[in-house]
Write a structure and sequence with these properties.
Layout (H helix, E strand, L loop, with lengths): L20 H15 L5 H9 L13 H12 L1
Helix pairs in contact: 1-2
């Protein structure tokens, strides 16, 4: 008997490629920010600015560049 795998529980089913090292660091930072209680975008951005993970073009995170990046990575 083979192991049944429910198709909707595959966490990477829509992923086209493995994340880069920077993308994995960003994911870990976002998870940490949410774990510390951030829920609103301003809280998430402030939390990310408290980490060593910078946006792709450097500088600080803003609601605008965070939202744009999430759209780009989710495309």
């Amino acid at each position: 008997m083979s192991d049944y795998r429910f198709p909707y529980l595959e966490p990477h089913q829509a992923r086209a490629q493995a994340p880069t090292a920077w993308q994995q660091e960003l994911a870990n930072a976002i998870e940490s920010v949410f774990t510390k209680g951030a829920r609103e975008i301003d809280e998430v951005v402030a939390g990310l600015n408290g980490t060593r993970v910078r946006p792709p073009n450097g500088g600080d995170w803003t609601p605008e560049n965070f939202t744009a990046l999430m759209k780009e990575l989710g495309a």
